Amino acid sequence: MKTLKPFSSALVAALLLAGSAQAQNQKLPLRTPDHREIRAPDRHEERQNAAERMDDRMDVAELERVLTRFDKARAQRNNAAELAAVDNRLRELLRAELAEGSKEKLQARAETRREWGESRAENRDDVRDARAEAASLAARKTIARELNSLMGARSPSQLNRKRDLIVELVRLGKQEVRQDRQEQREDRKDRRY
Predict the structure, then answer these.
(1) Spatial CA neighbour of 42 closest among 30, 50, 32
(2) How many CA atoms lie within 13 A of 181 on its CB side?
(3) How is the chain split into domains, by residue range?
(4) Helical spans, DSSP H, in 78-155
(5) 143 has pLDDT over 80
(6) Mean per-residue pLDDT for 187-191?
(7) pLDDT band at residue 38 under the 50/70/90 scheme
(8) CATH class of this structure's domain 47-192
(9) Residue 179: is it exposed, middle or buried by C-beta count within 10 angstroms (0-12/13-18/19+)?
């Protein structure tokens, strides 16, 4: 029995060495981060983008309601109180829109800087998005200035111009919603690759 102990110890040692050598020769998979770790920023960005899209749709719907109120008030001659209420609501919406537009412009610029170098296509998309945000904000500011000068105005030509400006705000809002959808499709496409 004494001869078996050294033999069994040698056998165990040989098996251990052979096992470790075989493990070293095999390509062991590298530990990859948990998919939740990789996707957490994506999910946060998706939730943020979804909230912004919803907000943009609600803004368009509210502007359309203001336009309807404006048309009704205008159709009812001598309805200065309702026209004044529409003017006040327009001021509120424009203040909120301009603040939101400034924030989105800054976010678009920050995203361009943060993600610079990922790929040329993505860089172009980010730069295009930042330019679109800046152009949209500039257009809204121009409309806001002109609408501000027309607040309280009651002549038919001034009311026609005010209506045209409200329609232009609705158009800009719908354009932003379309751009949001396009950006969502691009983001989905980028995540597939």
Answers:
(1) 50
(2) 6
(3) 47-192
(4) 80-114, 120-150
(5) yes
(6) 70
(7) very low
(8) mainly alpha
(9) middle
Pair of tokens at residue 113: 């800087």
Which residue pairs from 78-83 have beta carbons closer than 8 angstroms and sit at least 24 positions apart in sequence? Answer: 80/154, 83/154
Q: How far apart are CA 153 and CA 163, in angstroms?
A: 12
Cβ contacts of 47-56, under 8 Å, gap ≥ 24: 49/180, 49/183, 49/184, 49/187, 52/104, 52/180, 53/177, 53/180, 53/181, 53/184, 55/100, 56/173, 56/176, 56/177, 56/180
Range 103-113 burial, b when 16+ CB lie within 10 A, else e:
ebbeebbeebe
Q: Span 106-131, mean pLDDT?
A: 72
- Our separate counts of H helices and E strands in the chain read 5, 0
Q: What is the largest CA-CA distance in the chain?
A: 117
